């Protein structure tokens, strides 16, 4: 588990340790937290993984399996629904569930780095170079079913909550 430092937002009680598990078959993300007072918590968020299935190949648009960690957190303080292109704010807020909204990256980005050479790290299969994120989506009506192009999509309110509870370095395990 990742050690979590104190947070600037006093309204959020941060865990001292956290880890994430994404269960593709359930289309759920589990956040496991342990707090300074000894209490433990599991938060469960519905997600959407790839509509193309499981895989690590570059250009496949599939969701990779295995152990990752959050390499970069992007978008702290951005308004809910903010659209990001190439990890930069466009200064535009997405219209939720609009017809043709497509695979927009919204609200927050947690960019994943694969930690298993030959599975999700290395030439032609690297999750980081494939730009695999946990992020918000304009297609919230598709959460709970495979619909992404490889990333792990979340409701925008949920991705803000998760973003505030984890740090760069938090482990993320993606399983079938």
Automatic annotation (TrEMBL):
Alphabetized InterPro entries for the sequence: LD-transpeptidase, LD_TPept_cat_dom, Transpep_catalytic_dom
UniProt-listed PROSITE patterns: LD_TPASE (PS52029)
Pathway(s) it belongs to: Cell wall biogenesis; peptidoglycan biosynthesis
Pfam families, A to Z: YkuD
Residue stretches in coiled coil: none
GO terms, molecular function: glycosyltransferase activity; peptidoglycan L,D-transpeptidase activity
Domain L,D-TPase catalytic per the UniProt entry, residue ranges: 18-175
CDD domains: YkuD_like
Protein keywords: Cell shape, Cell wall biogenesis/degradation, Glycosyltransferase, Hydrolase, Peptidoglycan synthesis, Transferase
GO cellular component: extracellular region
GO biological process: cell wall organization; peptidoglycan-protein cross-linking; regulation of cell shape
Active site: 135, 151
Family, similarity comment: Belongs to the YkuD family.
PANTHER family per the UniProt record, alphabetical: L,D-TRANSPEPTIDASE (PTHR30582), L,D-TRANSPEPTIDASE ERFK_SRFK-RELATED (PTHR30582:SF24)
Protein name in UniProt: L,D-TPase catalytic domain-containing protein
């Amino acid at each position: 588990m990742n050690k979590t430092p104190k947070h600037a937002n006093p309204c959020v009680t941060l865990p001292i340790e956290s880890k994430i598990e994404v269960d593709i078959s359930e289309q759920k993300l589990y956040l496991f937290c342990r707090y300074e007072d000894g209490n433990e918590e599991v938060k469960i968020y519905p997600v959407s993984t790839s509509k193309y299935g499981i895989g690590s190949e570059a250009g496949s648009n599939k969701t990779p399996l295995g152990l990752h960690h959050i390499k970069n957190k992007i978008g702290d303080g951005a308004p809910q629904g903010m659209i990001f292109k190439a990890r930069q704010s466009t200064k535009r807020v997405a219209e939720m569930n609009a017809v043709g909204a497509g695979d927009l990256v919204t609200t927050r980005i947690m960019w994943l780095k694969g930690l298993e050479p030959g599975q999700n790290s290395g030439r032609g299969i690297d999750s980081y170079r494939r730009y695999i994120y946990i992020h918000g989506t304009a297609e919230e009506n598709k959460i709970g079913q495979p619909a992404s192009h490889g990333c792990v999509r979340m409701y925008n309110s949920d991705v803000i909550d998760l973003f505030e509870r984890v740090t760069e370095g938090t482990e993320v395990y993606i399983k079938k």
